Amino acid sequence: MSSVDTAPDHSLVIAVDGTSGSGKSSTSRGVAERLGLRYLDTGAMFRAMTWWLLREGVDVHDVAAVAAAAGRPRIESGTDPQAPTITVDGRDVSVEIRSDEVNGAVSPVSAVPEVRARLLDLQREVIGDGGIVVEGRDIGSVVWPQAEVKVYLSADPDARAARRAAEEGGSDLATTQESLLARDRIDSGRATAPLTMAEGAVHVDSTHLSLLEVIDRIVGLAEAQAAQSGARGTRDGG
Fold it and tell me: How confident is the model over 176-210, as pLDDT tens digits?
Protein backbone atom coordinates (compact mmCIF):
# COMPACT_ATOMS: atom_id res chain seq x y z
CA MET A 1 0.00 0.00 0.00
CA SER A 2 1.29 3.47 -0.86
CA SER A 3 2.17 5.82 1.98
CA VAL A 4 0.53 9.23 2.06
CA ASP A 5 2.87 12.23 1.97
CA THR A 6 2.00 14.69 4.77
CA ALA A 7 4.51 17.35 3.70
CA PRO A 8 2.66 20.43 2.41
CA ASP A 9 3.43 21.08 -1.25
CA HIS A 10 4.83 24.35 -2.52
CA SER A 11 1.63 25.46 -4.23
CA LEU A 12 -0.12 25.67 -0.86
CA VAL A 13 -1.74 28.93 0.23
CA ILE A 14 -2.34 29.44 3.95
CA ALA A 15 -4.63 32.39 4.74
CA VAL A 16 -4.29 33.85 8.24
CA ASP A 17 -6.90 36.47 9.13
CA GLY A 18 -7.80 37.96 12.47
CA THR A 19 -7.98 40.83 14.88
CA SER A 20 -5.25 43.39 15.56
CA GLY A 21 -2.70 42.25 18.11
CA SER A 22 -3.66 38.57 17.94
CA GLY A 23 -0.19 37.55 16.77
CA LYS A 24 -0.82 37.17 13.03
CA SER A 25 2.60 38.43 11.91
CA SER A 26 4.79 36.37 14.25
CA THR A 27 2.62 33.33 13.69
CA SER A 28 2.51 33.63 9.90
CA ARG A 29 6.25 34.16 9.63
CA GLY A 30 6.89 31.18 11.90
CA VAL A 31 4.59 28.94 9.87
CA ALA A 32 6.21 30.05 6.60
CA GLU A 33 9.71 29.37 7.95
CA ARG A 34 8.70 25.95 9.29
CA LEU A 35 7.14 24.86 6.00
CA GLY A 36 9.61 26.54 3.65
CA LEU A 37 6.99 28.86 2.19
CA ARG A 38 6.97 32.54 1.26
CA TYR A 39 5.26 35.14 3.45
CA LEU A 40 3.11 38.18 2.70
CA ASP A 41 1.98 40.82 5.20
CA THR A 42 -0.94 42.54 3.46
CA GLY A 43 -1.35 44.94 6.36
CA ALA A 44 2.07 46.38 5.60
CA MET A 45 0.83 47.18 2.09
CA PHE A 46 -2.06 49.24 3.49
CA ARG A 47 0.34 50.94 5.88
CA ALA A 48 2.70 51.70 3.00
CA MET A 49 -0.14 53.28 1.03
CA THR A 50 -1.11 55.29 4.12
CA TRP A 51 2.47 56.47 4.69
CA TRP A 52 2.73 57.62 1.08
CA LEU A 53 -0.60 59.50 1.22
CA LEU A 54 0.46 61.28 4.41
CA ARG A 55 3.83 62.20 2.89
CA GLU A 56 2.09 63.56 -0.20
CA GLY A 57 -0.24 65.69 1.90
CA VAL A 58 -3.40 63.84 0.90
CA ASP A 59 -6.23 64.16 3.45
CA VAL A 60 -6.78 60.54 4.47
CA HIS A 61 -10.37 61.35 5.51
CA ASP A 62 -11.19 62.68 2.04
CA VAL A 63 -12.38 59.53 0.29
CA ALA A 64 -12.36 61.08 -3.18
CA ALA A 65 -8.81 62.40 -2.76
CA VAL A 66 -7.54 59.06 -1.48
CA ALA A 67 -9.28 57.22 -4.30
CA ALA A 68 -7.78 59.54 -6.92
CA ALA A 69 -4.25 59.05 -5.56
CA ALA A 70 -4.38 55.30 -4.85
CA GLY A 71 -2.96 54.28 -8.21
CA ARG A 72 0.18 56.39 -8.02
CA PRO A 73 2.67 54.80 -5.56
CA ARG A 74 4.69 51.71 -6.55
CA ILE A 75 4.40 49.32 -3.61
CA GLU A 76 6.48 46.15 -3.51
CA SER A 77 6.52 43.45 -0.85
CA GLY A 78 9.43 41.10 -0.18
CA THR A 79 8.30 37.59 0.76
CA ASP A 80 11.23 36.18 2.76
CA PRO A 81 9.72 35.28 6.17
CA GLN A 82 13.07 35.83 7.88
CA ALA A 83 13.48 39.34 6.44
CA PRO A 84 10.25 40.66 4.90
CA THR A 85 10.50 44.04 3.20
CA ILE A 86 8.11 46.73 2.03
CA THR A 87 9.12 49.50 -0.36
CA VAL A 88 7.33 52.51 -1.83
CA ASP A 89 8.78 53.83 -5.09
CA GLY A 90 11.97 51.93 -4.29
CA ARG A 91 12.33 53.27 -0.72
CA ASP A 92 12.33 50.86 2.23
CA VAL A 93 9.60 52.06 4.60
CA SER A 94 9.56 49.12 7.04
CA VAL A 95 10.19 51.42 10.01
CA GLU A 96 8.14 54.43 8.89
CA ILE A 97 4.91 52.44 8.41
CA ARG A 98 4.85 51.56 12.13
CA SER A 99 4.66 55.19 13.29
CA ASP A 100 1.82 56.54 15.44
CA GLU A 101 0.77 58.78 12.55
CA VAL A 102 0.33 55.80 10.23
CA ASN A 103 -1.35 53.78 13.00
CA GLY A 104 -3.97 56.50 13.35
CA ALA A 105 -4.64 56.85 9.62
CA VAL A 106 -4.53 53.33 8.22
CA SER A 107 -8.15 52.36 8.99
CA PRO A 108 -9.83 55.15 6.99
CA VAL A 109 -7.40 54.56 4.12
CA SER A 110 -8.09 50.81 4.20
CA ALA A 111 -11.83 51.44 3.94
CA VAL A 112 -11.58 53.22 0.58
CA PRO A 113 -12.72 50.76 -2.16
CA GLU A 114 -10.19 52.03 -4.72
CA VAL A 115 -7.34 51.39 -2.26
CA ARG A 116 -8.56 47.88 -1.58
CA ALA A 117 -8.99 47.16 -5.30
CA ARG A 118 -5.47 48.39 -6.11
CA LEU A 119 -3.84 46.39 -3.33
CA LEU A 120 -6.02 43.35 -4.00
CA ASP A 121 -4.50 43.13 -7.49
CA LEU A 122 -0.99 43.42 -6.03
CA GLN A 123 -1.71 40.79 -3.37
CA ARG A 124 -3.04 38.28 -5.87
CA GLU A 125 -0.05 38.93 -8.10
CA VAL A 126 2.33 38.10 -5.23
CA ILE A 127 0.39 34.98 -4.27
CA GLY A 128 0.62 33.78 -7.87
CA ASP A 129 1.14 30.02 -7.99
CA GLY A 130 1.06 29.70 -4.21
CA GLY A 131 3.66 28.41 -1.80
CA ILE A 132 2.89 31.24 0.62
CA VAL A 133 1.45 32.19 4.00
CA VAL A 134 -0.64 35.37 3.68
CA GLU A 135 -1.83 37.37 6.67
CA GLY A 136 -4.43 40.10 6.79
CA ARG A 137 -8.06 40.83 7.50
CA ASP A 138 -9.84 39.46 4.42
CA ILE A 139 -7.48 36.90 2.88
CA GLY A 140 -9.72 33.85 3.22
CA SER A 141 -12.92 35.76 2.44
CA VAL A 142 -11.87 38.06 -0.43
CA VAL A 143 -8.22 37.96 -1.49
CA TRP A 144 -7.83 34.19 -1.87
CA PRO A 145 -11.03 32.34 -0.88
CA GLN A 146 -9.71 29.17 -2.54
CA ALA A 147 -6.85 28.93 0.02
CA GLU A 148 -6.32 25.32 1.07
CA VAL A 149 -5.86 26.30 4.73
CA LYS A 150 -7.79 29.19 6.30
CA VAL A 151 -7.23 30.36 9.87
CA TYR A 152 -8.97 33.04 11.90
CA LEU A 153 -6.65 34.08 14.73
CA SER A 154 -7.95 35.94 17.76
CA ALA A 155 -7.15 36.64 21.41
CA ASP A 156 -8.97 38.41 24.20
CA PRO A 157 -8.52 42.21 24.39
CA ASP A 158 -6.28 42.14 27.47
CA ALA A 159 -3.82 39.70 25.88
CA ARG A 160 -3.80 41.62 22.61
CA ALA A 161 -3.17 44.93 24.33
CA ALA A 162 -0.34 43.47 26.43
CA ARG A 163 1.36 42.02 23.35
CA ARG A 164 1.03 45.20 21.31
CA ALA A 165 2.21 47.42 24.22
CA ALA A 166 5.27 45.19 24.62
CA GLU A 167 5.99 45.45 20.88
CA GLU A 168 5.80 49.22 21.14
CA GLY A 169 8.17 49.41 24.08
CA GLY A 170 5.77 49.72 26.98
CA SER A 171 2.81 51.76 25.70
CA ASP A 172 -0.10 52.47 28.06
CA LEU A 173 -2.22 49.31 28.21
CA ALA A 174 -5.62 51.01 28.38
CA THR A 175 -4.82 53.33 25.47
CA THR A 176 -3.42 50.45 23.43
CA GLN A 177 -6.47 48.29 24.07
CA GLU A 178 -8.88 51.06 23.04
CA SER A 179 -6.85 51.65 19.87
CA LEU A 180 -7.04 47.95 18.96
CA LEU A 181 -10.77 47.74 19.65
CA ALA A 182 -11.41 50.91 17.65
CA ARG A 183 -9.50 49.44 14.71
CA ASP A 184 -11.58 46.27 14.92
CA ARG A 185 -14.83 48.24 14.99
CA ILE A 186 -13.85 50.19 11.88
CA ASP A 187 -12.56 47.15 10.00
CA SER A 188 -15.53 44.96 10.92
CA GLY A 189 -18.05 47.63 9.98
CA ARG A 190 -16.66 48.84 6.66
CA ALA A 191 -18.72 48.20 3.56
CA THR A 192 -15.86 46.81 1.45
CA ALA A 193 -14.16 43.55 2.54
CA PRO A 194 -14.97 43.75 6.28
CA LEU A 195 -13.00 41.81 8.88
CA THR A 196 -14.82 38.49 9.20
CA MET A 197 -14.11 34.80 9.68
CA ALA A 198 -14.07 33.24 6.22
CA GLU A 199 -16.22 30.26 5.35
CA GLY A 200 -14.27 27.11 6.12
CA ALA A 201 -11.74 28.85 8.38
CA VAL A 202 -10.49 27.27 11.59
CA HIS A 203 -10.74 29.59 14.60
CA VAL A 204 -7.58 29.62 16.74
CA ASP A 205 -7.77 31.55 20.02
CA SER A 206 -4.21 32.43 20.97
CA THR A 207 -5.03 33.98 24.37
CA HIS A 208 -3.59 31.12 26.41
CA LEU A 209 -1.24 29.69 23.79
CA SER A 210 2.44 30.39 23.27
CA LEU A 211 3.63 31.50 19.85
CA LEU A 212 5.16 28.06 19.28
CA GLU A 213 1.87 26.36 20.15
CA VAL A 214 -0.03 28.52 17.66
CA ILE A 215 2.53 27.81 14.95
CA ASP A 216 2.35 24.08 15.72
CA ARG A 217 -1.42 24.15 15.41
CA ILE A 218 -1.41 25.81 11.99
CA VAL A 219 1.42 23.60 10.71
CA GLY A 220 -0.71 20.67 11.85
CA LEU A 221 -3.63 21.96 9.79
CA ALA A 222 -1.36 22.24 6.74
CA GLU A 223 -0.04 18.71 7.23
CA ALA A 224 -3.57 17.35 7.65
CA GLN A 225 -4.62 19.07 4.45
CA ALA A 226 -1.60 17.57 2.65
CA ALA A 227 -2.46 14.12 3.97
CA GLN A 228 -6.05 14.50 2.79
CA SER A 229 -4.90 15.64 -0.65
CA GLY A 230 -2.42 12.76 -0.81
CA ALA A 231 -5.12 10.27 0.09
CA ARG A 232 -7.40 11.67 -2.62
CA GLY A 233 -4.54 11.44 -5.12
CA THR A 234 -3.88 7.81 -4.17
CA ARG A 235 -7.55 6.93 -4.63
CA ASP A 236 -7.83 8.81 -7.90
CA GLY A 237 -4.70 7.14 -9.21
CA GLY A 238 -5.97 3.72 -8.32
Answer: 677 776 766 666 666 665 667 889 999 999 988 99
Q: What is the pLDDT of residue 23?
A: 87
What gap in Å lies between CA 227 and CA 131, rounded to an integer? 17
What's 83's DSSP letter? S
Spell 157-179 as b/e; 16+ CB within 10 A means b. bebbbebbbeeeeebeeeebbeb
- Structural domain including 50 reads 13-215
- The reply to whether 159 falls in a domain is yes
d(CA 35, CA 131): 9
Please list, residue by residue across 96-135, b when 16 or more beta carbons sit within 10 angstroms of its beta carbon and e when fewer do. bbeeeebbebbbbbbbbebbbebbbebbeebbeebbbbbb
Cα separation values, 224 from 146, 180, 221, Å: 17, 33, 5
User: 62 burial class (0-12, 13-18, 19+ CB within 10 angstroms)?
Assistant: middle
Q: Amino acid identity of 152?
A: Y
- State the pLDDT at residue 2: 37
**CA-to-CA distance for 216 and 121, rounded, in angstroms?**
31
CA atoms 181, 182, 183, 188: torsion sign: positive
Say which DSSP state 12 is in: -
Residue 234 domain-assigned?
no
**CATH number, position 22:** 3.40.50.300
Average pLDDT of span 146-170:
81
Number of domains in the chain: 1
> Is 22 contained in some domain?
yes
Strand partners, 66: none
Q: Does a structural domain hold residue 86?
A: yes
